[in-house]
Amino acid sequence: MINSKQTTILTPERLFRLSPLLSYAVMVVLxxxxxxxxxxxxxxxxxAMAAPQAGVRWIDIxxxxxxxxxxxxxxxxxxxxxxxxxxxxxxxxLTALVPPAVAAWLTGLVARRLFPESRWAPLIAATxxxxxxxxxxxxxxxxxxxxxxxxxxxxxxxxxxxxxLKTDRFGWGLGVLLFWFFAAASKETxxxxxxxxxxxxxxxxxxxxxxxxxxxxxWIASFIHGAAISYLQHNYTASYTTAGAFxxxxxxxxxxxxxxxxxxxxxxxxxxxxxxxxxxxxxxxYWILRFITAGALCAFALVxxxxxxxxxxxxxxxxxxxxxxxxxxxxxxxAGRFLYPALPFAVLAVVGILIRWRPARTVLILWVFFALSFxxxxxxxxxxxxxxxxxxxxxxxxxxxxxxPPRSTVAFLYHPHPGDPLWRGIYVQLHANVFIPWAHAxxxxxxxxxxxxxxxxxxxxxxxxxxx
Length: 468
Hints:
By secondary structure, the protein is mostly helical. Helix 20 (about 420-435) links the parallel strand 1 (about 410-415) and strand 2 (about 440-445). The termini are far apart. It has helices at about 10-15, 20-35, 40-50, 60, 70-85, 90-95, 100-115, 120-130, 135-140, 145-165, 170-185, 195-205, 210-235, 250-265, 285-305, 310-320, 345-355, 360-375, 380-400, 420-435; strands at about 410-415, 440-445, 450-460, 460-465. Strands 2-1-3-4 form a four-stranded mixed beta sheet. It folds into two domains: about 10-375, no CATH class; about 400-465, no CATH class.
């Protein structure tokens, strides 16, 4: 007689053990149309700051950047890739998917600690992180790896902190410190690291006096790090602060925070277009939704602070607010990549709700809906089209640059770099610094007295225009 237990091969536990590889494989399939494309947008700037082909030294990577940020983690990763594989877009894109795959696995591990009563919770959490459309923003370009690396650091820190609270072993405490440094080196918003650990400790009521003393030290270290970043932002001419990208207006902060929080659960409202259909939502609807969300956030915070041991779902909903606070000070339209560090906690809250019912149908619908979005979304397809045009522009640029005298001033009247005129000029210059560094060309967007050549990009060719 065959034991029925031996006939079950694909149990939730066994599938979850394979989740890092499965998540990465699924992401490769979802991202495949974009994986074959060229570098795009901030990838060019990342290469200019880290690639040895652009003449960048190691000391340049670990010192503050020209925009007032200190993000050595993703720049070191870029340096390694370009040193091993050269300026390979495919290697770049495949590497960018590694941190989101690790983040999906770590989210599952946190789910296993939070919801031990459910065999399916870890697998559901990992798969929702894998298929979620917000993952596209974190994995589409290595320039956004600062957000996915920060997410890995936050989740790793939570897991190490949880184990240290239970075992008091030195190794887990050292892990917390290393993940704190990793978070700080990933992105300036890594200052939220001790905030999340504090909320976690408060919510689960597991903190000893020693634990709270360590949290105070982490708060002090993060405050010093934040003060240093603030100093850089106020003293670098190309920083977000000096460019006026931040605002302390309560109206702007409230609007941005509620929009970001809504986008965690319904990303199609603010950060990506709706799949299959196109329609305009009236502005009054957004304001009603913002007031509802603001009320919900206040209720979550009140329950969390007044309950001795609040429900785990409430704790997760409160923690999800923290990574969104600093991005909400920005004045532009909500950006999908800023959502990624908060996404695991929102996903875990959803998992906590789903496991109380039969989740299979709901999870399957979410998987299919998100997966289709990767292929039918106008935003995603536009990114691929622009990247392909960038590849053709680079090929034509390399061919034409062979005819230029050294240190020529070259004007481009049209090119595939998007954005406002100022940033287009900076990016085309960086493009030249990375792919034709031997030319030492100065790029301008209009004809100047010292201009030697004038070009217009007529896809797929660079057409040389008469110099007038």
